[in-house]
Structure formats: structure tokens, C-alpha cells
Amino acid sequence: MYALLLSVLKIAITNGFLGLGTLINVTLEISLYLTVRLK
């Protein structure tokens, strides 16, 4: 899980704004996933 987040962070830094958008999308997906699991 943490390795995945670290790799996403590396991609975000490498790709700049495009990567940042990807990071935001992944963060939202993880948030939704956790929200569904906690319900």
C-alpha cells in the first residue's frame, strides 16, 4: 500500500501537473474505497 503511494508520488513529481492530477484522482479513489469499507 505504502509502496504504491510512494510510486504515485514519484510519478507525480516526474510528470508535474499531469502527475499531480493523477495523484489527486488516486487519492480520491482511495478515499472513496475507505469510505465504502468503513460503512
TrEMBL record:
<keyword id="KW-1133">Transmembrane helix</keyword>
<protein>
    <submittedName>
        <fullName>Uncharacterized protein</fullName>
    </submittedName>
</protein>
<feature type="transmembrane region" description="Helical">
    <location>
        <begin position="12"/>
        <end position="36"/>
    </location>
</feature>
<keyword id="KW-0812">Transmembrane</keyword>
<keyword id="KW-0472">Membrane</keyword>
